[in-house]
Amino acid sequence: MNLYLDLYLTMAKVGVCTFGGGYAMLPILQRDVVEKKGWITEEELTDYYAVGQCTPGIIAINTATFTGYKVKGNLGGVIATLGMATPSVIIIALIAAFLSHFADIPWVVHAFAGVRACVCALVLSSVIKLFKGAVVDRAGLVLFAIVLILSSFVGLPSVLLVVLAGLAGLGLRQIRGWRR
User: Which of 29, 51, 54, 169 is found 20 to 30 A from 62 (Cα to Cα)?
Assistant: First the structure.
């Protein structure tokens, strides 16, 4: 199959399944883009996801753009972005047209509650996978704990936390380099 079409359809599939925001797409991206297609590595996905949180826009779109660019350059980035966005645009248009008619129906309310629970489980699964790949030593564990505390209890912006963690990683590399 044409790689551009494959990129579009893969991202559209992820886009259809991304209920609950960008965090919910991680397990699908891990399976389809990293494990099945081999387009990017687990580490690259983590990096794209982190940068996608720091850049303006939707995390899912940003991550798709970075992935598409890696696979097929500028046009690949555009195709992946369109693939990720197309299902959302269609679904949002349909929901907007009919939401007021069915939002209070009990089975719809319960269905959304079930979807939210599923999204929480998918996000937790992704966090566990990312943790295993990203926290590989004591320094990483300490940095993880500090960022978790700062984000959970202090409420620092994600962008600031990512930048500070990146600077801490650079600092740790310099310190380790001096020891050798």
Answer: 169
Q: In this structure, what token pair is assigned to residue 45?
A: 């996905």
CA-CA distance, 34 to 107, in Å (whole number)?
36
pLDDT of residue 71: 95
The pairs formed by 141-145 with CB atoms below 8 angstroms and a separation of 24 or more are: 143/168, 143/169, 143/172
Give the DSSP H or E segment for 170. helix 158-179
Q: Is the pLDDT of residue 9 over 90?
A: yes
Q: How confident is the model at residue 20 (pLDDT cuts 50, 70, 90)?
A: low
Q: What residue has token string 């004591």?
A: 138
Number of neighbours of residue 150 by Cβ within 10 angstroms: 15
Long-range contacts (CB closer than 8 Å, 24 or more residues apart) made by 129-136: 129/26, 129/27, 129/30, 129/42, 130/26, 130/46, 133/42, 133/43, 133/46, 134/46
How many whole angstroms separate alpha carbon 154 and alpha carbon 160?
A: 12
For residue 135, is it left (φ>0), alpha (ψ between -120 and 50) or beta? beta
Please tell me the pTM assigned to this model. 0.62
Q: Residue 100, class by beta-carbon neighbours within 10 Å (0-12 exposed, 13-18 middle, 19+ buried)?
A: exposed
